[in-house]
Amino acid sequence: MNLLLFAAHERTPQNTLILPVQDRRATHITQVLQLQLGDTLEVGQINAGIGQAKILAINSQHLILDLLSLNQAAPPALPVTLILALPRPRMLARSLEHMVTLGVKHLVLLHTARVQKSYWQSPELKEEKIAQHIQLGLEQAKDTVWPHITYAPLFKPFVEDVLPEIIQGKKALFAHPHSQQACPRGLQEACVLVIGPEGGLVPYEVDLLTQAGLEGVHLGPRILRVETAVTALLARLF
């Protein structure tokens, strides 16, 4: 945890933050960072600024922080809308943290032919689990801006009815290992990127994305796991 992240409702009128000792953040402060009374640490309010807090009290029930300042801006977001075929539940958790850490603020989780329908029933898609992984990713990156996640459980209606508006005025790409064009480097413009499942997009899906105006790109001959492909593509594009 490189940044203690808190929500606006946790901030008291006295400009303090009171954490129960069993709170994960309090445990990290006392047991991992081993901070003591009077020490300071970096904190950030969700969708607001970053700054410093001072430890006012540590007792058997609470850890109390004095919020000294929150005047530093969050790091810039990546100018990308990432559309990701819903991964296997365990891989979703890792991928989500990686994407948030890298600065993705707009994510669509998409159903494709090779996504098992059971994935959509996974506990990993519950709001509290998604929030947990988002928070871990933000804490790692010292970021406070909460990403926006939407779900597209029907491929064809999404590509035909929703995607055209999303890609308007942006460079639109989909990653596919059999594409002729290599993934570009160092984009200086907003981008929409579609990443398929580990089994790849089926020909029908490739055709539909191409008809919608997206260009297929590849990263070379190696077949990558989803979390590796996400990181490699974003690092190369930006």
UniProtKB/TrEMBL annotation:
Query: NCBIfam families in the record, alphabetically?
Result: PRK11713.5-4 (NF008700), RsmE family RNA methyltransferase (TIGR00046)
Instruction: Write down the EC number.
Output: 2.1.1.193
Gene Ontology molecular function, alphabetical: rRNA (uridine-N3-)-methyltransferase activity
Record's superkingdom?
A: Bacteria
Homology family = Belongs to the RNA methyltransferase RsmE family.
Q: Does the record's keyword annotation contain rRNA processing?
A: yes
Q: Which GO terms describe its cellular component?
A: cytoplasm
Q: What's this protein's function?
A: Specifically methylates the N3 position of the uracil ring of uridine 1498 (m3U1498) in 16S rRNA. Acts on the fully assembled 30S ribosomal subunit.
Name where it's found. Answer: Cytoplasm
* GO biological process terms on file: rRNA base methylation
Record keywords: Cytoplasm, Methyltransferase, rRNA processing, S-adenosyl-L-methionine, Transferase
Domain (Ribosomal RNA small subunit methyltransferase E PUA-like): residue spans on this chain: 22-67
Query: Which residues fall in a coiled-coil region?
Result: none
Name of the protein this chain belongs to: Ribosomal RNA small subunit methyltransferase E
Source species: Allopseudospirillum japonicum
* Catalysed reaction equations from the record: uridine(1498) in 16S rRNA + S-adenosyl-L-methionine = N(3)-methyluridine(1498) in 16S rRNA + S-adenosyl-L-homocysteine + H(+)
InterPro entries, per database record: Alpha/beta_knot_MTases, RsmE, RsmE_MTase_dom, RsmE_PUA-like, tRNA_m1G_MTases_N
One Pfam family from the record: Methyltrans_RNA
Where does the record place the Ribosomal RNA small subunit methyltransferase E methyltransferase domain? 77-237
Among its keywords, does the record have S-adenosyl-L-methionine?
yes
What PANTHER family does UniProt report for this protein, alphabetically? 16S RRNA (URACIL(1498)-N(3))-METHYLTRANSFERASE (PTHR30027:SF3), RIBOSOMAL RNA SMALL SUBUNIT METHYLTRANSFERASE E (PTHR30027)
